Amino acid sequence: MLDAAIEIIARDGLRALTFRAIEEAATASHGSTIYYFKHQDGLIAAVLQHLAERDQAALAQSPILELLREAATEQEVGRLLAGLVEEFVGRSRALSLARYEIFLYTARRPEHAEAAVAHWRGNFIQLLEPMMAQMGAADPVGAARFFMSAFDGVLLGLLINPSGMDGGELATYLTRLLRAVTGDASATH
User: Fold this and answer.
1) In 10 A of CB 136, how many CB atoms?
2) How far apart are CA 57 and CA 77, in angstroms?
3) Are 60 and 115 in contact (CB under 8 A)?
4) Residues 143/184, Cβ–Cβ less than 8 Å
């Protein structure tokens, strides 16, 4: 049911997410969704948790983390991160759209899922922190937070306008961003 909910959110937005729509998409019996989730906020919290778990599992199975740890240059890190962005706006576009829909929901109703979003983002910041330290950031946690915020902006921009940057431009941009957040004086060159 949660995967069906994600598909509905990605395709039509949160307004289209109804118990009946999920039951139809998941070919579940009438009333089963409300039995499990009780109300819309419970459903959205469960979808958020499911998306976070899917993201964590995908990262754990992906070679990207190991490749990032082994990357010898900022340019190589920028290229790898550009590939990750391209994955998010390409093959995983539906998941990215659903993720942003839920982020916007939590911005309007933080009492329902703010802690879950903070935990989710915290997990990614923890993944970035060692990379920022390795790249010489004086404040690896702050650099990771800053990078994550900028990365979100880039990703959202490319979800809105997929032809906004090609892979080479994106890698160059992310490399400059890395240099800026880690305190490299050549960030603007």
Assistant:
1) 13
2) 21
3) no
4) no
**For the CA atoms of 85, 86, 89, 92, what is the dihedral angle to 10 degrees?**
-90
Identify the pLDDT of residue 189: 41
Backbone torsions φ then ψ of 153, nearest 5 degrees: -65, -45
What's the pTM?
0.78
- Tell me the chain's radius of gyration from C-alpha atoms: 18
* Residue among 177, 112, 116 nearest 148 (CA): 177
Read off the pLDDT of residues 106-125 as tens digits, 9 standing for 90 and up: 888 777 666 767 777 777 88
C-beta neighbour count of 22 within 10 angstroms: 25
Average pLDDT estimate for 75-79:
88
Beta carbons within 10 angstroms of residue 60's beta carbon = 8
CA 98/CA 145 separation, integer angstroms? 22
Burial status of residue 166 (CB atoms within 10 A of its CB: 0-12, 13-18, 19 or more): exposed
> Token pair for residue 65?
């983390």
Q: How far apart are the C-alpha atoms of 34 and 43, rounded to whole Å?
A: 9
Distance, CA of 33 to chain centre: 26
